[in-house]
Amino acid sequence: MKVRVGYGLGVQGLRDEARFAQLVDALERYRFDSLWLSERIAGDAPDPVVGLSFAAGRTERLKLGTSVQVLPGRNPVLLAKSWASLDRLSRGRTLPAFGLGNPVAAEHQAFGVARDARAPIFDEALPLIRRLWTEDGVDHDGPHFHYKAITVHPKPLQQPPDVWLGGRAPSELRRCGRLGDGWLASFCTPADCEAGRPVIDEAASGAGRRVDPEHFGAMVVYAHDEVPAALKDRLAALRPGLDPADLVPVGLPALRDRLIEFIGVGFSKLVLVPLAEPDDWTAELEKVAAAVLDLQN
Fold first, then answer.
1. Were 173 and a residue from 135, 199, 222, 269 both cysteine, which residue would form a disulfide, CB within 3.0 to 4.6 Å?
2. Structural domains of the chain, count
3. CA-to-CA distance for 256 and 261, rounded, in angstroms?
4. CA neighbor of 31 nearest in space, from 7, 47, 15
5. Domain boundaries, position 57
6. pLDDT tens digits, the chain, 297 residues: what are they?
7. CA-CA distance, 259 to 5, in Å (whole number)?
8. Stretch (H or E) spanning 271
9. pTM recorded for the entire structure
10. At what angle do helices 118-134 and 76-89 cross, to 10 degrees?
11. How is the beta sheet containing 94-95 ordered, strand by strand?
């Protein structure tokens, strides 16, 4: 099992966008595996594809993922073109991950899709995007999209890129098995991940598919100091019955122990998300690299 450790910004973004270059350069310098950017329209997080394109131009080996990008409400042909272009220009380093979108109404309205229509659109769009990445002259006549002999060029260097999905509800896990190439869990404990994996595998088997055992990962939020009371309240609402420490390890020794727990249940792609933006990304990543990167193999 290949263990890889990447970094994400979550949805909080950056206080100063000029420091994004420092983050990207430090990730490359200390040989973290990947950078993952989330989509939040009204937050300080950069548009994920724009941010990843910036990162691609500054790096040679860093993989480029989303955690996640909203799919319903986007034109699947244009989205396929965008990711194919980034995959070519980055020499095959993309890790697209798609989701249904933030349920917050203030952001959800931006995509112009009724809440109950998101899942059917997603289920139709993702297979179509894969076809556009691998086929020419695609014909498609579905409930939401209609195309005749449409082609996207250039094709991605990866044929096709693996698409990761998020979520933790049973319906989301089953969708990951039916349509996804990997699961990137968030706000989950190692026990949650261990319980969710058979649901994905069963759904994949029922659809005549198989999710690569190497394609199970988790986003791990960590803190250096005590978790603020306001965040504890939000975590309690998000995951009733769990101690915040079950979701947010405090201190680098605790972070390392949590990563080992995830690895122990077969989750080998780990994305670290700092609870608070550090004052100096280079110093932060140097310390974290020294604490956990020996887990990569």
1. 199
2. 1
3. 9
4. 7
5. 4-295
6. 999 999 999 877 777 788 899 999 999 999 999 999 999 888 787 899 999 999 999 999 999 999 999 999 999 999 999 999 999 999 999 999 999 987 777 788 899 999 899 999 999 999 999 999 999 999 999 999 999 999 999 999 999 999 999 999 999 999 999 999 999 999 999 999 999 999 999 999 999 999 999 999 999 999 999 888 888 888 888 888 888 889 999 999 999 999 999 999 999 999 999 998 999 999 999 999 999 999 999
7. 9
8. strand 269-274
9. 0.95
10. 50
11. 69-70, 97-99, 164-165, 182-185, 216-222, 269-274, 4-8, 34-37, 63-66, 94-95
DSSP 3-state percent helix, strand, coil across the chain (nearest 5):
45, 15, 40
Q: Looking at 60-128, which runs of residues are DSSP E strands?
A: 63-66, 69-70, 94-95, 97-99
SS3 state of residue 54: helix
Sign, Cα dihedral of 154, 160, 161, 166: positive
Per DSSP, what are the bridge partners of residue 216?
Answer: 183
Helices 48-58, 20-29: inter-axial angle, 10-degree rounding: 50
249: left (phi over 0), alpha (psi -120 to 50) or beta: beta
Q: Which CATH number characterizes residue 196's domain?
A: 3.20.20.30
Half-sphere exposure of 19 (CA within 13 A, CB side): 15
Q: Please give the Cα distance from 189 to 192 (Å, whole number).
A: 5
Residue type, 250: V
> What tokens appear for 42 in the block?
């009204």
Residues 179, 127: contact at Cβ < 8 Å?
Answer: yes
